[in-house]
Structure formats: structure tokens, C-alpha cells
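Input sequence (235 aa), recorded before submission:
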Amino acid sequence: MKEKDLFKISLVVITIFMLIQLSISYMKDVQLTFLDKLIPITKINTDKKVVAFACNVYEGNEEIEKMLEVMKKKGVKISFFLGGIWVKNNTECTKKIMAYGHEIQNHGYMHKKSSVLSRQSNMDEITKTENIIFEVTGKRTNLFEPPYGDYDDRTIEIANKLGYRVVTWSIDTIDWREDATKELILERIRKKLHPGGIILIHPKKITSESIENIIDYIHNEGYEIITVGEILKEQ
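Predicted structure, C-alpha cell format:
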């Protein structure tokens, strides 16, 4: 075989090898992108000592008022994920949350489990909430936290198509449990506190009574408290 022919064959082999490598790399990127869309954001990977609070709201006006005053005193802004029906029935409290400078996001309309709803019902839960929040505040939402933290692949797909990123949490204070105490809530935060974490709270009496101590503890550990929207920009 001539040297010229060997060169041509070598060139073809190298080209094919490079194309295979590029194809493998592309498929990995596609797979990672696909997986990313099917997994809610629970935290971000960062060395920066920042955490965010996600307060899920379908009740607790009086406790919200107390929490807002404490956070104002402490100079802290958090994210309130609001239920649409709650916003409809509590427009003044919704406006007050916004007036205090907190982030308002989407928590579905009627607190239903996303994984058991039809495709259309999933869409309605998000869009009806977005519309009522916009009607009351003039602000659009772009983050969706499914009620109960319940979701499936379809939930993520639908939310993404509607322009939403789906988030849950990495630290559950379990303030929603009947046996929750100030000590238990703070202990859970002590054990689980980490950079880039999202901390789940609710407007419960035990939470409004604990929030100042929680904020003080987190600050004393050298952490900054920011909104969920802000923490996602740290990636």
C-alpha cells in the first residue's frame, strides 16, 4: 500500500474518531440538560456562606405580620411562596409582603399534589396563581415550589414550559409538625446548615416565635440570608 493511501486512511480514521468523541460529548450534554429539567433545585453548590428562606403560605396572616416585623428589624429579605387562593383572600397581606421588600413566588393555587393532577390541572394551578399574584402586586413569578414538595417528571416539564424553575428545599425545619418546638427547629438548622441551602418555613406560631433566634444563629455562623431568586444567581 502506498504511503499516500496510508495517510488518507489515517486521516479518515482520525476524523471518524473525533466525530465519535464529539457525539459522545454532545449526548452527555443533552442528558445532563434533560436531567436538570427533571430535578427540582433544592440547593446550590457554592462555597459562599449564603442561605435562603422559602416560606410557604396558605395560612397564618397574624404570624406573617409578626415575622415581617422581625425580619425588618434584622434587615433580612426572604422568599414567600404564596398559594393562589390565599392571595385572592388576603390581598392586603400580600401587598404588605411586597412592600417590605420580600420576594413573592408561586406555590400553586389550591395546595394540591402535582403528581396526581392532570396535565391541564397542573398548568391551571401555576397559571391561576401567577395571574392572581400579578393582579394584586403587578409582579410576575418565575419560581414554582410544588405543594408538599410533591412532583414528578411531568410537573417539572410543565413548569419549565410555562417559564418556571421548580425549587424545593434542602433544610426542612418541620415547623409544620404539631410536636415542633423552638429547640427542635433550631437544632435541625444547626445540624443541616450549609452554604447554598434553601430553608423551608411556614407562617406558624412556633415559627414567628422562633424566627429572630433562627436569624441570629445563622448570622452568628457567618451566613448571609438572601432570597431564593438571589441564591440561584450564585451558581
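Checked by second reader. Residues 1-38 form one domain.
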